[in-house]
Amino acid sequence: MVDAGLVALSLAPLLVIALLMVVFIQPATRTMPIAWLAAVGAAFVGWEMSPTLIAAASIRGAMTATRILIIVFGAILLLYTLKQSGAFEVINAGFSSLSGDRRVQSILLVFLMGSFIEGAAGFGTPAAIVGPLLVGLGWPPMAAVVVALTGNILAITFGAVGTPLIIGLRDVVFAQGTDAAAEITASGTGFETVGAYVAQVGVWAGAIHAIAGIAIPFIGIALMTRFFGEEQSIKPAIEMIPLCLYAWAAFVIPYLATAYFLGPTFPALLGALIGLFVVAATVRAGYFAPDSDDEWDFGPRDTWPDHWVGSIEPGAGVSGESGDKTVAADGGTTSFADMHAQDMSLGVAWLPYILVAIALVVTRIVDPVTEALLAVQLSWTNILGTPFSESIELLYLPGTLFIAIAVVTYALHGMNGQKIKDSWSEAIRNIAPAVVALWFAVATVMVMQRSNASIVLESASANAGMLQVLSQLTVDVTGGAFPFFSGFIGAFGAFIAGSNTVSDILFGLFQYEAAQSVGAPTQIVVGAQAVGGAIGNLIAIHNVVAALTVVGLIGEEGRVIRIELIPVLYYGVVTGLLTLLFAYVIAPAAF
User: Strand pairing of 333-335 and 325-327?
Assistant: First the structure.
């Protein structure tokens, strides 16, 4: 049995996060510094970590968080560059011209385009971008938020070009030189490198998503027709099952193939991009889409309840009122005439993201290019004289590519100085709140992780670190059924942190060691953790707040979360059952 005092100390940072963010609804910018103090106190009291070791671990965490922030900033900058250039209006118009049926729009704009944006940018951007587009098409803002939050769950684990796995696991939990990395290479599992291990985690996560996600296009439509339709029935959603299954297959086939052959960087990006063009072409050709006489729509505007619409009136373009000017989510105004002055083609509008896909493939597959980019690093070895080290590959990070292509887009889309300035202002304004939160969140986890470092345990009365104590406690309670709960643990992490990446950082090593304790393949259980991180994003408080804010409906968080619990419970249970099946039936038989 584990020591009760050490359990209490290990739980302290997580309880602080849960209480402040869930019970008292405090933002991450306030919660995470307090959680870090709790972790520091626990490390000092229970594990006798010196102030120097605590500081070094915290610095390493802040450097890791900076890598995440560079990726997120680059992705957001490119998104707002396309917004300012008018490209998103053009892309949106291209989709809306295919069908006026809201069910078809849900599949094209939410399930596929939302997944593409998640694959490229991650970190809650699909709901923030797609939500206003749906409102511009005439959707009730409440319906737009609910469907936008639900539809891209398969992409979240591989969001921001694989950040939750690549950063959340390989470069934090399984960084070279940690005890976990040594265990992977020495355990006889056949993984020669940590990167190969994480790629295998991605394959299992993709398999769980592919099976559980078969219902997601349908669930998104069913939530819309049941809660926001005149008839309040799922019957209109049932009519769309053929298109739902077709869209799922068009996305999942390249998604799984990419995860298997290319690793965790591209599955969401390429799966969604290929699926998007396949399904759009199919609908344009007249297959699966309903006839114009049978197109489903919301009821008349005057029948909508007040809580469906806030400060932004639907149906007048992106985030705006009708007329020559639109009112943006931040309160500014943008001229539609100015946005469309270039008469941009659909191909030109998509070109920056096509360049992103090409650049990512080249920099990850062409070895001389990869080696040249990796050679440029910001490194700190033996931080403060301790064994802890960290580095940032400045040119190799996807965020750097995003920034470079955003600059190229200025010329491609003929943007003037004011539009360029506005794109940077919006990106900086959106990334700023995440800086403090991520620095302290990852620093908190790094202090908890490094409490297991040999230099710490040599002088401490404890014989295991904080996360090892928690994993042992969980195994004692759940026994061999632990894999069933892996997805829910990941979902809890994302719920309190609002990020699949941070959830993986919080609980990746915890799940790895718990899986070892019950004799389950660690790559499957950690894969379920990564899937769980996607599940929790649907109800993460500040994700919901952000999605509601951009459609002018702040204050309706409770209603949204109650509806989102339906897909969360479905996905959590199916993930748990699949994890048990893969861990105890499929994997032993296959390997």
Answer: antiparallel
* Cβ atoms of 138 and 552 closer than 8 Å: no
Contact 141, 552 (CB under 8 A): yes
Q: What is the pLDDT of residue 305?
A: 94
* Band of pLDDT at residue 170, cut at 50, 70 and 90: low
* 3-class SS letters over 546-587: HHHHCCCCCCCHHHHHHHHHHHHHHHHHHHHHHHHHHHHHHH
CA angle, residues 391, 393, 399, in degrees to nearest 5: 125
The reported pLDDT for the residue numbered 167 is 80
Angle at 196 between CA 195 and CA 201, to 5 degrees: 95
Alpha carbon 400 to its chain centroid, in Å, reads 19
Residues 373, 395 contacting (CB under 8 angstroms): yes
159 contacts 119 by C-beta, under 8 angstroms:
yes
Average pLDDT over every residue of 257-286: 93
Q: Sort residue 160 into left (φ over 0), alpha (ψ -120 to 50) or beta.
A: left
At residue 325, φ and ψ (nearest 5 deg) are -115, 145
Q: How far is CA 562 from CA 150, 307, 538, 554, in A?
A: 13, 14, 11, 15
| pLDDT tens per residue, range 477-502 | 999 999 999 999 999 888 876 789 88
Structural Rg of the chain based on CA atoms:
23
pTM for this entry: 0.76
Judge whether 206 and 271 are in contact, CB under 8 Å.
Answer: no
Least confident of 29-33, 477-481, 568-572: 29-33
d(CA 215, CA 574): 11
Residues, the chain: 591
